[in-house]
Each structure stands twice: as structure tokens, then as C-alpha cells.
Amino acid sequence: MKVSAEIVLEGDAGNIEKLFLAEEKAFANKRACYEVKKHKNNTIFKVSAEDSTALRAVLNSITKMIAVYEQAKAAVSNK
Description:
Elements (H helix, E strand, L loop, with lengths): L2 E8 L2 H9 L10 E8 L2 E8 L2 H26 L2
């Protein structure tokens, strides 16, 4: 069963888009892929997967990267 999801992040679109430019958008097993688009100051992730397990793996990967970005940004702001 094919599944898909869309994540919209508000703010910091330019930095988040740059962060994901170097990332692989399609996975080696070809069960899932995603694309990143910037719209105004929002970043939009469109995820497609062959099954729910592959979808969850991609969503986890994306959210981990965003969490690291948020932590780094907070650390720099606190200096």
C-alpha cells in the first residue's frame, strides 16, 4: 500500500532548505523518497513510500535532522 505525507515547517526556510540539499532524497532500497521545496518562508517536505514502515523511517530521518538544527540554533542564540 503506497502512503504519503507532507510536513510544513514555518520559518527559516532558506537555512532548512540548504541543510537538506546535501541529503539523499531517495533511499537505496527504493521504498521511499522525499522532496523539499521552499515556499515563502516555509519549507515543505513531500514524502512518498511503498509502505508505512518506510514512511516512518523517512519521517524519523527528517525530524531528527530538524531537531539537530533547532538545538544548534538555540546553542548559538544562547552565546
